[in-house]
Design goal:
The structure holds 3 protein chains of 3 kinds. Chain A is α/β, with parallel strands linked by helices. Chain A has helices at 43-50, 73-78, 96-107, 113-126, 142-155, 172-187, 199-205, 228-236, 295-303, 324-329, 350-354, 372-385, 402-414, 432-447, 459-465, 489-498, 500-509, and strands spanning 3-14, 17-28, 32-36, 58-63, 66-67, 81-84, 160-164, 191-196, 208-213, 216-222, 254-264, 270-280, 284-288, 310-315, 318-319, 332-335, 365-366, 369-370, 420-424, 451-455, 468-473, 476-482. Chain A folds into 3 domains: 3-236, 3-Layer(aba) Sandwich (Rossmann fold); 243-331 and 419-513, Rossmann fold; 334-416, no CATH class. Chain A has 17 helices and 22 strands. Classes of the chains: A alpha/beta, B mainly alpha, C mainly alpha.
């Protein structure tokens, strides 16, 4: 089996951070090769180097046995490398056809536009997008957009296709379809490199795996000869125990009551429809669902940042209406899905971010004037309590690492002793140490009686932390299940995709609630 | 009556030119995701260099070329400062506008306005096309203009063609739509942006030259912030070539009305008439913003 | 300790080095211009000597310089304040003019009141009119997201025509054939610090404003909101801070401050509204703000230097036939050099300190 791609001793530093440290990797032709690592391990940097988006400091790239000098995406494309990023690289205003055309135009000098058009039509038909060729990309669904990305890469003649976390925005069923597609591509001669942090994907779909940790290539294994324990250990450097976190079994009183909450746009689109949920004291209700089904909007409504168009919601029997600030003062805390420049203002000092929701109350201020001493006291206390690594609280919060940045948000939101905590994607993009920390804090909050709504696209996280799980599909609650160690994951996956149909089936025949 | 209307529309075509040229250049800038705040500086530099070139050579064509070159040079300087030195676009634009105003004022005071008799250069003259120019109504309105009017108006379909049917147009729209995506598709974002900004600068320079060459004079501050009106026009029509043309004609019509009524002074002080284009621009921007908001609601 | 965002009143190593930039920039501009002037048969040395000789050498000149520096400083502090909320107030010129208009009207209306009252009311009149002229771009920006930059520039132009008209017709002094308004009642005149000079009470107002605005930004709840909104509007919305209200209020206050500068002109210098009342103070104030940024001492120093250029420039036009626009050119060029030095300094610090400023990438990968 010949190696179609060889990376030798690739190194890259950003300032003092060594993103890639002499990484060597060999990819066999026609294989699906997984690149596994935590966030921050350097996998995207490595692939960005391969694709010409980033210039390497040292090392060589060999494609098909020959040295390849790649200094720009165009070079990479000409060498047969295609990359599909986590955030789709499509031009929203242009049509599907135009998006594909751009890529080809750049690669080849002279094209017969008519012949090209025909080829695009054929490809689109194969992928089921024949009728969408002249539709602007912004109007397509996420799955459809990904297909356009694949067509585009294919049309550019990519022999090596790199996919960066392709399933992060897909339902389990859509993911299965994707991998079937990729398998067909490998049969046709393509080589796939799969960047992922999901162990399941590596074990199920890849032939080989290279594990990166902190910029170094730790191991190169054949997927069928390893298991998730070994992979996890190599990925993190320590033993990971895959067990369910302790669950709370005591029944408690209902606290948060959400009744038929709806959000409808003026054009009649239902972003949320008749969402009815309740959350008890000391309970974590997890909402599973692929991004784009209304989760963010639900969180915003509950936190007071957005207004619903219908329905109501109460906390401890009292209607919870009013803006974000009023709700915050009445005990609602919100950890938003977007950290940077939403959860915290990056250029503001750490201390300022910590008092974002009570800057105008005693002791932080009096009669409209800030009390710097009191503010410093509060921030120092929180920073030490939450183990945030920083030389001072007066420096901008942007100087913190991802995990510490999140800790500031956590510190602020938890220290106000909320009754109800809304937490969206709390561990996205964090390294394992930070993930554990955040999850433990959430569990602690649960123990002390806080009602927690956990919204996450990571099903593993939902399964690990929730007492009950609700699935949001197309803005509606499709089903609510009690969490248990033998919960039927397939059923959840079905609910996530089936959406409304499943809801109707439940109402007709009944399933677990 | 028909004389008034003929005169009105006749001046409309003559007056629309600077706005049109600047705004159409801005189409390239805005569709590639940029905003040329320095357009005033480019216009005023274009005005003085156009004047100087025509004064020296007697040819208005060379005047336009000189104007285009100076506008283009300023654009490149701005572009490099913004993208290479990563300075803030707005600040650089303000500085360059001030600098251009200062330099042109300086040169004007030294060379042009030093004596009591203002220096003049060759003006743009109206063409006389046999037969066509002698048609009633249509003659003076459409066929007896200076050559730049025709160049400006005929450039619109060419621009539309390039924008929608040519590789460069596709590339720049891609960059304007999603620059990082465009990069991964192999487009050289930096070069594309620079070319568009350059086009904006050259257009601004030519537009400025038109201002001085129609009068045959250079007066300090003669651009009167009209460059920003061109920006607003382009934004209002969302960077569409024909929409921008319509906007430019509309403004020119308003201008034309204002000029006709000035000497009459029907109880409307001339200052209010002069204010008209600027107030109109604010109105136009407001309507444009309102429309965007409506659209976003329906998204 | 230094927070919330940029250090306004604290002095540390960075600040000291950075405050040299304006001076360096100015020197570089002088050198560059000085190198080019000979090509126009202008002697740079005698020109510069004249400028500074005039501006600082004579009592008259010094008074003019300080008289011109005061409105520039006032406008600059207003610009700095509004920048904190993330808006660049380019409408300062128009707001200054309207402030002068407001002062004229208020002075004539309340001129019969005892002096302190008349002065206060006149100042308030200036602030109100200046605030109004800022309210237009502010409300459009906040409710409809209209580009406030273009609106400001348009309104500057409108202000020129409006004031021009007003001094030509309705407000014109019937006893004067020049187009200017009547002289305001003496009770509304700014008390002079030094007789027969342009150094008047406005100076105290300017200094007080600097201290006041610095205090507001750093120490008040309102200032905190301004900082948050300016840092990240989305964060403000998330935290329940009324972003649009804060922006509107700050912008309007900025207009009021520009209005004070205009009122200052009418009350302290010309004692009447004139078409040229703005004297370019709007733009001078903006350039001063761009250079001095957050440093109050530099604000004052740069304003004085810029005014010196302005004042000196007028003279050299007459005595040496050197166009006064030279002053504007030097001013603009200085900003350019200062900005470039910021950039170069940043690169230099990167090299020396090693880190590229630990920019967090909480999204995970270092790309």
């Amino acid at each position: 089996m010949s190696n179609i791609l060889e990376l030798r001793n690739i190194s890259k530093s950003f300032g003092t951070v060594r993103a890639n440290d002499a990484i060597s990797m060999s990819v066999a032709k026609g294989h699906t090769h997984a690149l596994l690592g935590e966030n921050g391990s350097g996998k995207t940097t490595l692939m960005n180097i391969l694709f010409g988006l980033v210039k390497r400091d040292a090392g060589e790239i060999f494609i098909g046995g020959e040295v390849a000098e790649i200094d720009s995406p165009l070079d990479a494309i000409r060498r047969g490398v295609g990359m599909i990023h986590q955030e789709f690289m499509l031009i929203p205003e242009l049509t599907v056809a135009e998006n594909i055309l751009v890529g080809v135009l750049e690669k080849e000098k002279n094209i017969d536009i008519k012949a090209e058009r025909k080829r695009e039509e054929e490809l689109a038909a194969e992928f089921g997008l024949a009728d969408k060729l002249n539709v602007a990309v912004c109007r397509l669904s996420v799955g459809e957009q990904q297909k356009v990305e694949i067509i585009k890469t294919f049309r550019q003649g990519a022999k090596i296709i790199v996919l960066d976390e392709p399933t992060s925005m897909l339902t389990p069923q859509e993911s299965d379809y994707l991998f079937e597609l990729l398998n067909n591509l490998t049969i046709a001669g393509a080589t796939i490199i799969l960047i992922t942090h999901k162990l399941e994907e590596v074990l199920r779909y890849s032939d080989d795996v290279t594990v990166l940790r902190q910029g170094k290539a730790i191991a190169s294994l054949e997927s069928k000869n390893t298991d998730k324990y070994e992979l996890a250990e190599k990925m993190t450097g320590r033993e990971i125990l895959f067990e369910l976190k302790e669950k709370n079994t005591k029944p408690r009183a209902k606290r948060v009551s959400i009744n038929r909450l709806s959000l409808t746009t003026r054009s009649g689109r239902h972003i949320l429809k008749d969402v009815t949920l309740d959350i008890r004291e000391g309970e974590i209700l997890g909402i599973a669902g692929v991004d784009g089904n209304g989760q963010n909007e639900l969180a915003e409504i509950l936190a007071g940042v957005r207004k619903a168009t219908g329905g109501s919601y109460e906390i401890d029997g009292v209607p919870a209406d009013g803006g974000a600030r009023k709700l915050s003062e009445s005990g609602v805390s919100y950890i938003p899905g977007e950290r940077i420049d939403v959860g915290c203002a990056s250029s503001l000092a750490i201390a300022s971010n910590l008092i974002l929701k009570n800057y105008d109350m005693a002791p932080h201020s009096k009669h409209g004037i800030l009390n710097e001493g009191a503010i410093k006291k509060t921030s120092d206390k929180l920073v030490s309590e939450y183990q945030v690594k920083t030389p001072s609280t007066g420096i901008p919060v942007s100087s913190l690492s991802g995990g510490n940045y999140q800790k500031i948000i956590l510190a602020r939101e938890l220290s106000s002793n909320p009754r109800f905590l809304i937490s969206v994607q709390p561990t996205r993009g964090l390294d394992i140490g930070a993930v554990e920390y955040v999850q433990n804090r959430l569990l602690e909050a649960r123990e002390s009686g806080v009602s927690i709504l956990l919204i996450s696209t990571e099903l593993d996280e939902i399964l690990a932390l929730s007492d009950r799980i609700a699935v949001l599909g197309s803005g509606q609650i499709v089903g609510i299940l009690e969490n248990s160690p033998n919960i039927n994951i397939a059923e959840i996956g079905l609910m996530m995709t089936g959406g409304v149909q499943h809801l109707e089936r439940i109402e007709a025949g009944g399933t677990s609630i | 009556m028909s004389e008034i209307i003929t005169g009105l529309f006749s001046s409309m075509f003559a007056l629309c030119v600077p706005l049109l040229i600047a705004a159409e250049g801005e189409v390239f800038v805005e569709r590639s995701g940029q905003f040329n705040m320095g357009i005033e500086g480019m216009m005023v530099l274009g005005a003085i260099s156009g004047f100087a070139a025509t004064l020296a050579t007697g040819s208005t064509l060379l005047g336009f070329i000189a104007g285009g070159i100076t506008g283009g040079l300023l654009a490149i300087a701005m572009f490099l400062l913004i993208y290479k030195l990563k300075l803030d676009l707005l600040v650089v634009a303000i500085v360059f506008n001030l600098l251009a105003a200062g330099v042109t004022g300086f040169l004007a005071t030294l060379f042009i306005n030093s004596s009591s008799i203002p220096v003049k250069c060759n003006k743009l003259t109206d063409l006389h096309i046999p037969f066509l120019s002698d048609l009633p109504i249509a003659g003076p309105i459409l066929f007896s203009k200076n050559y730049m009017v025709y160049v400006a108006i005929l450039s619109v379909p060419i621009i539309a063609h390039v924008l929608y049917k040519r590789k460069f147009g596709l590339e720049l729209r891609a960059v304007g739509g999603n620059a990082s995506a465009a990069q991964t598709m192999g487009i050289d974002v930096f070069k594309t942006r620079m070319k568009c900004f350059l086009i904006g600068g050259v257009s601004g320079g030519i537009a400025g030259a038109y201002l001085s060459l129609t009068l045959g004079m250079f007066v300090e501050n003669m651009t009167m912030n009209k460059g920003f009106i061109a920006l607003a026009l382009c934004t209002f029509s969302k960077g569409k070539p024909y929409g921008t043309l319509a906007g430019a004609l509309l403004f020119a019509l308003a201008d034309s009305i204002q000029i006709r009524f000035q000497p009459i002074d029907i109880d409307i002080p001339y200052e209010f008439l002069l204010m008209l284009p600027y107030v109109l621009t604010v109105v136009v921007l407001t309507i444009s913003a309102k429309r965007s908001r409506e659209e976003r609601k329906y998204a | 300790m230094s927070f919330p965002r940029l250090n306004f009143l604290t002095i540390d190593r960075d600040n000291i080095t950075k405050s040299l930039f304006p001076v360096v920039g100015l020197l570089l501009s002088f050198i560059v211009c000085g190198a080019i002037l000979p090509f126009f048969n202008i002697n740079p040395f005698s020109t510069y000597a004249s400028i500074f000789g005039r501006a600082f050498g004579t009592m008259n000149g010094l008074s003019e310089t300080i008289g011109a520096a005061v409105p520039s400083v006032i406008v600059a502090i207003g610009i700095v304040f509004v920048i904190r909320v993330g808006i660049f107030n380019l409408g300062a010129e128009g707001q200054v003019m309207f402030g002068a208009l407001g002062a004229q009207i208020a002075a004539v209306a309340f001129g019969s009141a005892p002096a302190p009252v008349a002065i206060l009311l006149t100042l308030l009149g200036g602030m109100a009119f200046g605030a109004f002229w800022a309210f237009i771009p502010a409300i459009l920006r906040v409710t409809l997201k209209v580009n406030e930059i273009v609106v400001c520039i348009m309104l500057n132009q409108v202000a020129i025509y409006a004031i021009g008209f007003l001094v030509r017709k309705p407000l014109k002094d019937p006893n004067d054939f020049n187009a200017q308004a009547v002289i305001i009642p003496e009770n509304a005149w700014m008390p002079q610090f030094i007789e027969n000079t342009k150094i008047h009470f406005g100076l105290a107002i300017a200094l007080a404003l600097i201290v006041f605005i610095a205090w507001v930004i750093k120490r008040t709840v309102f200032g905190f909101r301004v900082n948050v909104v300016g840092a990240s509007e989305r964060t403000a919305v998330y935290a329940g801070i009324p972003a649009w209200r804060t922006i509107l209020l700050t912008f309007v206050i900025g207009g009021a401050i520009s209005g004070i500068a205009g009122a200052n002109e009418v009350m302290g210098i010309a004692h009447r509204l004139q078409a040229t009342v703005s004297g370019n103070y709007g733009w001078t104030g903006i350039t001063v703000a761009m250079i001095a940024k957050n440093n109050p001492f530099m604000l004052i120093i740069v304003s004085v230097l810029y005014s010196a250029l302005q004042v000196g420039g007028l003279v050299i036009q007459i005595t040496q036939h050197v166009p006064m626009e030279l002053a504007n050119i030097v001013q603009a060029m200085t900003v350019l050099f200062v900005l470039s030095s910021d950039f170069l300094y940043g690169k230099y610090r990167q090299r020396i300190d090693g880190h590229a400023g630990q920019s967090a990438k909480p999204k995970g990968e270092l790309v």
